[in-house]
Write a structure and sequence with these properties.
This protein is α+β, with helices and mostly antiparallel strands. It has 9 helices and 6 strands. The structure holds flavin mononucleotide (FMN).
Length: 228
């Protein structure tokens, strides 16, 4: 949860300037960003829940690591303690995935995250700024990754935390509701990312980072050769 300290517009502008300069194919800049600061709009967005089906829940658990030893060995996935309780409840009781009441209650937490954000950023892929060739959309969407990373780095550099909140985006009906609230035109603009921004009391105190070793994914000259 973030503190109540507001993000000054001057700081927000620096973050958006960083997004502006992200690399894109042919400098096509295929993105739009909706900044949400208004409390009523946040409230409406916070009421858009989501639910996962059994397959999606199983896909989540594939990446859950239950012990530090497992994390250290596999060097990927997310540690169980960062997950909200309702996600873990799904593991112990898989039948909950069908339970409307379970999802209604679980959405309190998600809703609080949205409402507690000082600023929300909705990043859209603008298909009216087309790239070239058969890979145009793939590259366009890739470049949204650059926008994402620039926002993250710029925010952190200013002592501001940025968290992606992707739950709603996995659900077609939820995305439809968000588009309606934000008046996103029906055609050509694809909602890809939602960031929540704010000041954290314990900024920079996040846990140890686990990542695959370089020797696991860097290859020398040919795929079969290790570099390190
Ligand atoms: C496309 C994308 C979606 C993500 N969605 C979420 C999310 O919904 N909630 C969240 O807390 N983190 C989300 N993350 C952050 C990742 O979980 C995080 O980067 C990863 O676990 C590694 O942790 P670290 O960045 O703290 O090292 C997302 C990251 C990416 C790139």
């Amino acid at each position: 949860m973030f503190s109540k300290k507001p993000i000054p517009d001057s700081e927000l502008k620096k973050i958006l300037e960083a997004a502006r300069f992200a690399p894109t194919p042919h400098n096509s800049q295929p993105f739009e960003i909706i900044v949400v600061k208004d409390e009523e709009v946040k409230r409406q967005l916070s009421e858009v829940g989501f639910r996962l089906n059994k397959k999606e829940v199983d896909e989540h658990f594939y990446w859950v690591r239950h012990t530090i030893e497992e994390l250290e060995t596999k060097k990927d996935g997310v540690y169980v303690d960062v997950l909200p309780k309702f996600v873990m409840d799904l593991q112990t009781n898989p039948k909950l995935v069908e339970d409307d009441e379970f999802w209604r209650k679980s959405m309190y937490l998600y809703s609080a995250l949205i409402q507690n954000s000082q600023v929300l950023l909705f990043i859209l892929y603008n298909q009216k700024r087309p790239g070239v060739g058969s890979l145009k959309h793939l590259w366009g969407i890739m470049s949204i990754g650059g926008v994402m990373q620039n926002i993250w780095l710029a925010a952190n550099n200013l002592g501001i935390s940025a968290q992606l909140v992707s739950g709603q985006l996995m659900n077609i009906e939820s995305v439809r509701k968000i588009r309606k609230i934000l008046h996103i035109p029906e055609k050509d603009y694809r909602l890809l990312l939602i960031f929540r921004l704010g000041y954290e009391r314990k900024f920079g105190k996040s846990g140890t980072k686990y990542r695959r070793e370089l020797s696991d994914f860097v290859h020398l000259d040919q795929f079969s050769n290790k570099i390190f």
